Amino acid sequence: MEEIRIRSSKHFEFIDVTRDIQDIVRKNEIKEGICYLYVPHTTAAITINENADPAVKNDIISTFAKIVPWNGNYTHLEGNSAAHVLSTVVGVSVVIPISGSKLALGRWQGIYFCEFDGPRTRRLIVSIMGE
Ligand code: ZN
């Protein structure tokens, strides 16, 4: 198990971590297996989506802001309920197959750490199983 630190710089941000994760897979010399990514936070998440056209991630972020408004009718006193909701909607883990020492991502797929209440320093746990 490894952990990487992610420093978000915005309140709402998708950070592409694909290369960092692929480097860990390569360094561990795993040819076939699975890579499990876990976010130990309640106001952040992880997802996989297109990383070729940056407009896609911007559209996802602007849609999230519309469907889960920051200033909604919430009761949580900390004032960041929208971030908690989005963490649960998006989810805090993904599993990616490893094949031929590479993440078996589709051509247009990238892995995004999703910051919903930044800027902060965050943790991402990387657990790799295989041989
Ligand atoms: Zn809170």
Structure description:
There is one protein chain. The protein has 131 residues and is an alpha+beta fold. The chain has a single domain, classed as YjbQ-like (Jelly Rolls). Helix content is 26%, strand content 37%. The chain is built from 3 helices and 8 strands; from the N terminus they run ββαββααββββ. It has helices at 18-27, 54-67, 81-90; strands at 2-7, 13-16, 33-38, 44-50, 93-99, 102-103, 109-115, 121-130. It has a 5-stranded antiparallel sheet, covered by helices on one side. Strands 2-7-4 form a 3-stranded antiparallel sheet. The longest helix has 14 residues, at 54-67. The two termini are 14 Å apart. The model has no long low-confidence stretch (mean pLDDT 97). Zinc ion (ZN) binds at residues 76, 78, 80, 84. The site of zinc ion (ZN) has 4 residues, from loops.
Question: How would you briefly describe this protein structure?
Answer:
The chain contains 3 helices and 8 strands. The protein has helices at 18-27, 54-67, 81-90; strands spanning 2-7, 13-16, 33-38, 44-50, 93-99, 102-103, 109-115, 121-130.
Q: Which architecture would the CATH scheme give at its second level?
A: Sandwich
Instruction: Count structural domains.
Output: 1
Strand adjacency order, main sheet: 1-8-3-5-6
**Helical stretch tally:** 3
Rg over CA atoms, rounded to whole Å, is 15 Å
User: Which ligands occur here?
Assistant: zinc ion
Total beta strand runs: 8
Class of secondary structure makeup? alpha+beta
Q: What's the overall geometry?
A: elongated
> What order do the SSEs take from the amino end to the carboxyl end, as H and E?
EEHEEHHEEEE
Mean pLDDT: 97
CATH topology-level name: Jelly Rolls
| The CATH top-level class label | Mainly Beta
